[in-house]
Write a structure and sequence with these properties.
Porin; 8-stranded antiparallel beta barrel; 4-stranded antiparallel beta sheet; elongated; about 210 residues; 15 strands
Length: about 210
C-alpha cells in the first residue's frame, strides 16, 4: 500500500467522522468485535543454558481478534485471541529452535468517558493462559539437543487502549498488553535432562478496526 493510498484512507476516515452525528458508543449490552494486526514482543529472560547464556526469543505478528461485552456504560470484559504465534529461539546469537503458542487473555475493563463519548480510553486487568506447541530444534548442535518441550503458563495481564467511534457501528482501536508468561523449557543435552526456567513476559501491541453490535 503506497503513501497516497494510505493518505486517502485516513482522509476518508476523518471525513466520515466529521459528518457523523452524535454517536452513542460503548453502552451497556454492546458486543464489540475487533480485528487487526497484533505483535508479540517478548521481554525474555532465562537461566543460563549450558554456559552459553540466556534464550533469545523473536517477535512475531499475527491476525488478532478480540471480543468485548459492555456490562455497563463504563465496565466491560474482553477476550483477546489470535492466530498462532511462531517464534525463533536463539542461544548465543544462533537460532536453535522454533515454537508456536496461543495466548488467550481475559480482562475486566474500565472505560473512561460516557456512552456519548466518541473517544473512549480504557484500562484492564485479567489473566493470561499460554499453550506452547510444535516445539522443535532446528539446530541440534550435532545431536546434542533432543526432546524439546515447554510447559503451559498462567499469569496476570494488564491492558490499556483507546477506541474512536467513527459512526454508530464502526470504530478504530489501538491497544497494548503486558502479560506474565513463564515456561519450563525441558530438553535433553547430550542425553541428560535439562529444565530451564524461562520468563517470556511479552509486550503485545494491536491496531484494529472494530464493529459494535
Amino acid at each position: 500500500m503506497n503513501k497516497n493510498t494510505v493518505s486517502t484512507l485516513i482522509a476518508a476516515t476523518l471525513l466520515a467522522a466529521g459528518f457523523s452525528a452524535t454517536v452513542s458508543a460503548h453502552q451497556a449490552g454492546d458486543i464489540i468485535v475487533r480485528a487487526g494486526a497484533v505483535v508479540v514482543a517478548p521481554n525474555e529472560s532465562s537461566d543460563d543454558v549450558a554456559g552459553k547464556g540466556e534464550f533469545q526469543i523473536s517477535n512475531n505478528t499475527q491476525l488478532g481478534l478480540n471480543f468485548g461485552y459492555m456490562l455497563t456504560d463504563n465496565f466491560g470484559v474482553e477476550l483477546l485471541a489470535a492466530t498462532p504465534f511462531s517464534h525463533d529461539v536463539s542461544l548465543g546469537g544462533t537460532k536453535i529452535a522454533e515454537t508456536k503458542h496461543l495466548p488467550p487473555t481475559l480482562v475486566a475493563q474500565y472505560y473512561f468517558g460516557d456512552a456519548q463519548s466518541k473517544l473512549r480510553p480504557y484500562v484492564g486487568v485479567g489473566v493470561n493462559y499460554t499453550n506452547f506447541f510444535d516445539n522443535e530444534f532446528t539446530n541440534d548442535l550435532n545431536g546434542a539437543l533432543t526432546d524439546l518441550s515447554m510447559s503451559t503458563s498462567w499469569g496476570l495481564a494488564a491492558q490499556a487502549g483507546v477506541d474512536y467511534q467513527v459512526n454508530k457501528n464502526w470504530l478504530v482501536n489501538a491497544s497494548v498488553w503486558y502479560a506474565q508468561i513463564s515456561s519450563d523449557v525441558k530438553f535433553k543435552l547430550s542425553g541428560d535432562t535439562v529444565v530451564i526456567d524461562t520468563d517470556i513476559n511479552p509486550w503485545v501491541y494491536m491496531v484494529s478496526v472494530g464493529y459494535t453490535f
